[in-house]
Amino acid sequence: MTTGENGALLSSTWEYDFATDLWTSKTAFEGAARTGALGFSANGGEFVTTGRSSTYPFDDLRQFFQPRLTTPMTKKIYILIGVFFIVFIIGLSVNTNKKVDDKMLKVESTPIQTASGWGYNILVDHKIFIHQEYIPAIAGNKAFLNKEDAMKTAGLAISKLIKGKQPSITKEDLTALKISLP
After folding, report:
1. Where residue 147 falls among pLDDT bands split at 50, 70, 90?
2. DSSP secondary structure letters along the chain
């Protein structure tokens, strides 16, 4: 077993012995540390492919243990396996990225001008999710004095939504955003 995650990405390699029920540390994987990788053995070689760092997916194929190649046929097998997996991984990552993008909802805000000032709409997948004509968290129905303040407040509500929190705005939030109050 190689790579993985234990609070941080790992490049360590371990071998399990069924007879003794023990794990033994082996030479670390020389490629970038990753999680979610696919490892396999072929003709005595050990390979690692795909996986993810904390910010991006990998589409490489790394051989980290290479036996002595004894015949030209063995070299051809390694090349064929490598090409097959690279093509497979590229195809998989293209389809996977598309599926993730298709499942994500677009969240955006638009300013609205009212008779008394400014407000905002927050749209999710192009549909109004929040219609806010007045400054939240203050007494009375008072509009924002300017479009910029309305949009700063909308941005905070969106960031809370994206983090899975309630998009409620507090007086402390308004103070931190330096919102002008009427």
Report:
1. very high
2. -EEEESSSEEEEEEEEETTTTEEEEEPPP-S--BBS-EEEEETTEEEEE--B-SS-B---EEEEE-PPP-SHHHHHHHHHHHHHHHHHHHHHHHHHHHHHHHHPPPEEEEEEEETTEEEEEEEETTEEEEEE-S-TTSSS---BSSHHHHHHHHHHHHHHHHTTS-----HHHHHHTT----
Please give the C-alpha separations between residue 69 and each of 43, 50, 66, 72, 154, in angstroms, as whole numbers: 10, 25, 8, 8, 62
pLDDT tens profile 19-59: 887 777 777 767 777 777 767 666 666 667 667 776 666 56
pLDDT of residue 71: 52
